[in-house]
Specification:
- By secondary structure, the chain is an alpha/beta fold.
- The protein has 3 domains: about 150 residues, 3-Layer(bba) Sandwich (FAD/NAD(P)-binding domain); about 110 residues, FAD/NAD(P)-binding domain (3-Layer(bba) Sandwich), CATH 3.50.50.60; about 120 residues, 2-Layer Sandwich (Enolase-like, domain 1), CATH 3.30.390.30.
- It contains 13 helices and 23 strands.
- Strands 1, 2, 3, 4, 5, 6 and 18 form a 7-stranded mixed beta sheet that branches.
- It starts with 13 loop residues before the first strand and ends with a helix.
- This is FAD-dependent pyridine nucleotide-disulfide oxidoreductase.
- GO terms for molecular function: flavin adenine dinucleotide binding; NAD(P)H dehydrogenase (quinone) activity.
- It comes from Hyphomicrobium denitrificans 1NES1.
- Its cofactor is FAD.
Amino acid sequence: MPKDIPNAASESQNIETDFCVIGAGSGGLAFAAAAVAFGQRVVLIEKHKMGGDTLNYGSVPSKALLATARRANTMRTASPYGIRDVEPLIDFAGVREHIKSTIARAAPNASPERFAGLGVRVIAAAAKFVDKSTVTAGDFRITARRFVIATGSSPVILPIPGLQDVPYFTNETIFENAKPLAHLIVIGSHATGLELAQAYRRLGSQVTVLEAGRALGDEDPELAAVLLTKLYDEGVAIREGVRVTRVAGEQGRIAVEIETPDGPERIEGSDLLIVAGRKSNVADLGLEAAGIKSTSDGIKVNAGLRTRNRRVYAIGDVIGGPLSSHAAAEHAEVVLWRTLFRLRAKAAGRALPRVVFTEPELAHVGLSETEARAKYGKIRVLRWPYHENDRAQAERETDGHIKVVTSKRGEILGAGIVGAQAGELIQMWALAISQGLKIKAMTEWVSPYPTLSEINKRAAFRYFATSPSNPYVRKVIALLAKLG
């Protein structure tokens, strides 16, 4: 990528602009494209790859890998549909090529050429604040009316004794793999860890997941249990409540020593994957020179995503909190409304959904049952199972259920779904919560038959399940009947 796409032979090394965006991941790209569309002068600085983690190491390659694994699993589990089961032959070089080609097909949307064509000035260099209103990047010195920091996050590498001498994968390197992994040991059991664990299990690897606490500890235990049972059934070994004390070995022969409630243990595998969290990318940004405060959790911002420096906003993973592409894009919208239109926009908060893209998927938005009870006291919990849905029966995807939490007055407080296409189905509840709808509104639409989305409506109707037996309702019906 050239240093300055629109003006590689710039006459001046000083640039004055309306917005300077640091980081070309999901949030930075979303903001830059929107701001320039409103006629603003925008400089976009990226020191590594356009598209950031989402395109190059995160959501895009992981979903490509999961799609491959899903097709392999379909081949070996086709007999219930009247098709003979076949053990797939996995071409790992072909799998890697599929991942790379998926990235390549998506890359034009985040390319420097596209953004240059939109009118954004793209600079390939590391950015650093030199004072409260100036950033340097390569040979350029940029002064802006507003800055947006969107530098994202990177994998946390745990201080495990022996790790520095052992080869291991992270989510930034696993997608380069082009060979079978006989026994993959995964340290970390949150969304990314379990997605990759299931994918490699379906591609023929033995997989062991190690977790110091509870697997999917951030999710509703009731819903998480359905997913974890599925993973167990597929042969993924998940060890909870264990502490990794040392690793040793070489490529193809890895030994992990763990401390369990029953004492020390040694697990041997062929490969190691570390997915134990992420850290905000704040190093070498010169934040002190700009008067910007940061902690180990990331850059500190207020409800409007502004830092202590009134000229500077920060969005996405770099501020901690929900680490997702859609959160970063939503943050970009908030900053756009605040800086261009001076509106008091705020981040979605509890209306921000999250999804674990395993099979079955696990999706959630809003408050959990535990959070809702703590805040509201008396609540209603509504459920509906997949096995009561005709489309789920036809597809033989009957594992899972929906769980909706409301207040006593019918305010929708949260929803969780574990099952097929949960990430698609949760969007209706995200919309309902963001618009302050009550549960009655979720019964007043027509769901096409047969579709999985019917479970949303059936769950909503559970709120009124006691109405037929209500004495007052029965008296009203009897009175109306007397009127003919």
